Sequence to fold (284 residues):
Amino acid sequence: MNPNRSSNLFDPERGENPLSLDEILTHLVTERIGRHLTILEEVDSSNSHLAREAERLPDGAVCVAELQTAGRGRHGRAWTSPPRRNLMFSVVFKESSIPGPIATLIGALSTVQATRGVGDWIALKWPNDLVSESQDDGAVEKKVGGVLSETKTDRAGKPFLILGIGINVNSRLEDFPEEIRERVSTLSFLSGQVWNRNCLLAEILNRIEALWKSTEATGTESIIDEARRNCSTLGKQVRLRIGDQVIEGEAVDLDPMGRLLLRDETGYVYPVELGEVVQARRIT
Ligand code: BTN
Fold:
């Protein structure tokens, strides 16, 4: 289930590294996820595409795009990426009761697991970001990817979930707008290697399937434990933006629903379901 790590690294001798159905399928060991897989040269958003097509697609269908013209992130933000260098893909779950926040954790942790071994530590920044954290002071977090889970309903009123993941794989830092360059990173920059996107995609899908299956079978305990082990937010004093409100506290833990447990200055611990960590510093 875990293709040889080194196969994730692309041999530049082979020239360009376009997405290839054959190569992805060679490394895919799933039963459910990615058995219907569409590679699109261009799409508005792989999440939007799957939402439109969900009714005619099987459970676990995947759409991966070389370019998104209207890629979306959380909080209504755009997700932009140059063509053919990164990964932008979505999976549709039509037969699952896993809620959005847990799906987001599964997407993020599958990516953390599949990229383990790059030069720096890729961590989950609660609730949906993938960041590389400097090992020295933990102060500088650079965004490497993000997850967008969306729940929709079909025409019969049946809910389905779309799990979308964007990862900065091989793009150069110059590809990013100057104003965000300081705050982003890529797998290639961190590892000093060009990555094979086909192997990486297959490995992430393999891991999503394994984590999804175990969560459906045994509940959220093990995925929350994995999130605790890989979460850069825990143990820090954080400032969170929730709509127009900003709150502060110590991020002490995650609860079984994937909510962040914050301790305020009086010692009271309470769960936070939504929000964006706008500042985090280690408690000394
Ligand atoms: C975020 O950081 O806020 C989440 C970013 C999610 C981006 C991915 S790219 C593939 C999928 N399609 C989209 O339009 N968004 C997600």
User: Anything to note?
Assistant: The chain has six helices and twelve strands. The first strand starts at residue 37 and ends at 40. Residues 45-47, 68, 71-74, 77, 79, 88-90, 128-129, 146-148, 164-166 surround biotin (CB under 6 Å). Confidence is low (pLDDT under 50) at residues 1-6.
